[in-house]
Amino acid sequence: MSLAVNSARAISREIFREEMLIPEQRELLIATIDRKRAEHNLAGVEVYSSKMEALTKAVDPEVPAAVLDLPIGQLVLQVLKGKQELTSVQEAQSGRLIRAGIPIASNVRRGEVDGVVVVDAYMPDSLLAKMEGIARQYTEYRQIKALKNPIKAGAYLFVAVITVMILFSATWFGFYVARGITVPIQRLAEATEAIAQGDLNVRIEVKAADEIGTLVESFNRMTADLKGSKSNLEHANVSLRQSNLELDRRRAYTEAVVDTIAAGVLSIDRAGLITTFNPSAERILGVPGEQVRNRPVSDAFKELGLDLFQSTYDRMLADGRDGLSVEGPVEVKGKFLTIGLHGSRMKDEAGRDLGFVLVFEDLTELIKAQKTAAWQEVAQRIAHEIKNPLTPIQLSAQRLRKKFFEKSPDFDGIFDESTQVIVNEVTSLKRMVDEFSKFARMPAPQMARESLDEVIRKVVALYSGAHRDVQFEVNLDETLPPLNLDREQMNRVFVNLFDNAVQAMNHKGRLSVTTKYEPKRHRAVITVADDGMGINPEDQDKLFVPYFSRKRTGTGLGLAIVQRIITDHDGHIRAANNEPKGAVFTFELPV
Ligand SMILES: Nc1ncnc2c1ncn2[C@@H]1O[C@H](COP(=O)(O)OP(=O)(O)O)[C@@H](O)[C@H]1O
Ligand SMILES: [Mg+2]
């Protein structure tokens, strides 16, 4: 409506300014009104004079003519009378017509009205409906706008409540999840404490499918395993204790055997320390066990003068053999004992070296008894040998007496025969008695510092002259100092040994003599070896026994004399077989 009023005012002012109401300007007025209508997009514009005559009328051809023809005179009249603006709204068939009547001021008379401009604005129903719609929506918008703040506040409240709820549930969820972790961990800690105190029966009852569950399960399994291995350990412990007991019993038994055995037992561990020294060993060697146990074997042997033991140990160490038997003299408290010694290497089940054990016996008494027995045999043999020639002597003498008293004609022949027998038998008797008394009455050695080399060289010279087919090899140790010996008797030793050697190889072969000085042991070691027939193992024990001989014409006294002389010189002799053949006699003399 105000749009129509404004347009009308503008047109009215234009008419006033240009003074278009005068009749001369009628053309201009018509054209102007037409233009203005189109400009302002109005349904119609009419201009009336003060006498209410219609001066011009411009209409919008698109607006139905019936609408614009609605009565207008009333409006124009009122405007002219009242000299003021008026508007009217008229309902038409297809819409609403809004009319604004504006007076046109007079150019001639001030304050008077010369005409009226009526502007028509047509609003068809469709536009009205839209406008109504807009108006309604505007109203609604106003209403809603009034609700804006409460709704905003409601939304804030809603958001706040939701936030609080989320916070609360998040906290609760957090606590819930944390409890799912902390409770099992708390249990784990308690269980660990219990296990640390030795209770292996703990089990944790937590049902969880996550990592904590796996952890708890692993923990339970670990406890079960621990329990299992602990009981295994206990079992093993029990059986260990049992086997220890059993071992202890066995050890005690073995110790009892070792302690009560008549033979001396001495064991040496791998480090060369003496570990066992049984009571028999103490008795035989006259040494208390404490003095030797846990001492290095070489120190102890040296201190006790046990050269035989030392050399046996050395040989076993050197050639790595498992067992070795020797026999020899050992000085115990000034007395010479003959000790039989057997050394063995000890090995465990796996074949590892554990050291050595030396078992020894005092053979002095046994050898004395053997010697007595041998001498008894000798006495019997001598008696027999003497009786043998006595019978033919007795028979010959009796026969001679008888024939003499019978005055027998063949007495001469018988006399000759019988006296011959008697002389022969007596001669043989005499030879035997001679030899025997020579052996029995062997004079005590006359010791002097002599060179052994010289003795040997002389005998070798004698024999190499007599036996052209025997090759002599002499290998003498020049460092050997002069020894305490009886030259005459030592000469006999070599004569006897050479005699035997030459006979054993039937006057043809190689005979070697060696000497060696062992300064540590203060010994001279002499060997006489041949490559003859060697020694029959059966005879080994009897070689040095008087009257033992394998030869038809032998006396069996040679080696007996040799042994006697060497023993008188504080030495020791043994016989063995030579490699590859023959025999070797080895003897040692103190230096
Ligand atoms: N070098 C040797 N090789 C082999 N056998 C030997 C040797 N020397 C001694 N015998 C054995 O020892 C035995 C005793 O020797 P011996 O006492 O000298 O007496 P005989 O020489 O009178 O037999 C000999 O009969 C011999 O069987
Ligand atoms: Mg002989």
Describe, in short, the structure shown:
With 591 residues, the protein is an alpha+beta fold. The chain has helices at 2-18, 26-40, 65-68, 73-82, 125-196, 211-260, 279-285, 297-304, 307-319, 364-405, 411-440, 452-466, 487-504, 558-568; strands at residues 44-49, 54-59, 86-91, 95-105, 113-124, 264-268, 274-277, 323-332, 335-347, 353-362, 448-450, 470-475, 483-485, 509-518, 523-530, 572-577, 583-590.
Secondary-structure map with pairings?
Elements: H1 2-18, H2 26-40, E1 44-49, E2 54-59, H3 65-68, H4 73-82, E3 86-91, E4 95-105, E5 113-124, H5 125-196, H6 211-260, E6 264-268, E7 274-277, H7 279-285, H8 297-304, H9 307-319, E8 323-332, E9 335-347, E10 353-362, H10 364-405, H11 411-440, E11 448-450, H12 452-466, E12 470-475, E13 483-485, H13 487-504, E14 509-518, E15 523-530, H14 558-568, E16 572-577, E17 583-590
Parallel strand pairs: 12-14
Antiparallel strand pairs: 1-2, 1-5, 3-4, 4-5, 6-7, 6-10, 8-9, 9-10, 11-13, 14-15, 15-17, 16-17
The protein binds adenosine-5'-diphosphate and magnesium ion.
Adenosine-5'-diphosphate binds at residues 496, 500-501, 504, 530, 532-535, 539, 543, 548-551, 554-560, 583.
